[in-house]
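Ticket 4471: requesting a sanity check on a complex prediction with coenzyme A. Repro inputs:
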Amino acid sequence: MIYRKATTNDIYQIAYLITKTIGTCNIKSSKNIFESNIEEVTKDIKNYYVCSSNKKIIGLCGISKILNKDSFNLGLKNVKEILYFCVEPKYQFNGIGTNLLKLCINNIKNDIIFEAWGDNGKYVNSKFILEKNGFRMVKNLGDSYYRKNNYCHKCINKNKGCNKCIAEIWVKYKTI
Ligand SMILES: CC(C)(COP(=O)(O)OP(=O)(O)OC[C@H]1O[C@@H](n2cnc3c(N)ncnc32)[C@H](O)[C@@H]1OP(=O)(O)O)[C@@H](O)C(=O)NCCC(=O)NCCS
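Returned structure tokens:
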């Protein structure tokens, strides 16, 4: 397995894996989910890390550039935000996600926001990784946040008929 920075040649494979494991967060786009993800990933391709096996991308994580907006009213300035984060299902629970997240957050001097979701009714999908890597949950957006904000039709679980989905904001505060 190889861990490396993403290049523009990876955009389609990255967008494909996101489409398969998440759906899209690019809900304002009128394009379909795969095309929305191509659009979204292209903007930040230089800020993604990937894990590949036999030239196939099996995991990815991205981190934004410095953002000046205070999207979740956290009172933080100059934050970075974790972008898409996913691992091919058959490779999950092998530490790949943790390695990719670490590549994104190591040596970052800013506060880092992670918007985490989960449909298992108990905790967000990335809870254990976030806890182990110094993030803490700072805001619970509520179980109907995604439904109210019209995300569900672009989610991987759109046909599951979920009636709630956990939405939480986790932050890793900068260390001076
Ligand atoms: C979230 C995701 C990227 C994690 O990738 P991964 O490669 O499986 O993650 P890792 O193997 O590095 O880490 C999983 C960790 O959580 C721990 N974990 C998972 N479920 C657990 C549980 N129920 N109880 C205790 N620990 C648990 C694992 O033991 C592991 O910790 P360890 O490294 O100390 O053993 C992957 O599950 C995924 O792609 N999910 C779908 C997309 C998604 O939900 N993205 C994140 C949105 S919040």
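Notes from triage: The CA atoms of residues 1 and 53 lie 5 Å apart. Leaving this open until the requester confirms.
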